[in-house]
Amino acid sequence: MKNILEAPFMVEMIRTATNMYAHGWDERNGGNISLMLEEAAVAEYLDLHSVLRTIPTGFTAPALEGRIFLVTGTGKYFKNVQYAPEVNLGIVRLQDQGRRADLLWGYADGGQFTSEFPAHMMSHVARLQVNPENRVVMHCHPANLLAMTYVHTLDERAFTRTLWQMCTECIVVFPEGVNVLPWMLCGTNEIGEATAEKMRTARLVVWSQHGIYGAGKDLDETFGLIETAEKAAEIYMKIAHLPRLNTITDEQMHLLEQRFGIKAREGYLD
User: Fold this and answer.
1) Model confidence over 210-245: pLDDT tens digits?
2) Strands (DSSP E) found in 1-52
3) If exposure means fewest CB atoms within 10 Å of the residue's CB, which of 3, 26, 82, 206 is most exposed?
4) The dihedral formed by the CA atoms of 186, 217, 71 and 201, expressed in degrees to the nearest 10
5) Sign (positive/negative) of CA torsion 253, 258, 261, 264?
6) Are 138 and 222 in contact (CB under 8 A)?
7) CATH number of the domain at 1-114, please?
8) 116 in catalytic set
């Protein structure tokens, strides 16, 4: 077997978690990542028949039966992932229609996957129905997006339009916009179900006064989505109290649609 710590998916996961911490998005044990892995790729590094232990999940997800995920651990600090990946990360395979997860590697201190695991898996199911290439769900706490949920209306159209107006690239990067949930208790199936429903129409879901969920086909895409939205929110928070003399108009955003071959969410532009 090859060294699991040298697997491309492991190297990229460690780099991403480290970068997210460096950006200030994942204080303490805030935030989590789940990456769906291809069985053939994992089989080069692990004996897929060797189960370390089984962890109940507390939910069902028949669509993910047999799927393998690399997931950050509960209570783990992103800053420590690069130093002790085998403690802070784990590779699990869902069994029994998602009711249990067989641990194939990691969580070496006896830990388990993030408490947001249900929300992640439900979001994976929702995004796979929209895009079969989706592989990543990422949750973090970017300061400016959080701040924005305190001072901006949570209406999804208005929230999206504000972000689009802050930076020319925004409508190109997330033309489907951003969906928004009111404050809900985290770590529950209820917030998982609500997030998954929002994921059917957008790859970014803001949790008010908490953070953001992003989804994508790989770690780079998902990180970039959140990074772009957070930069727009930062600009907004810097100018929200000032009179706005200029903006990106709807007419200009229509020009961006034509230039980049994208289509803004229906009804979001005048």
Assistant:
1) 999 999 999 999 999 999 999 999 999 999 999 999
2) 32-37
3) 3
4) 20
5) positive
6) yes
7) 3.40.225.10
8) yes
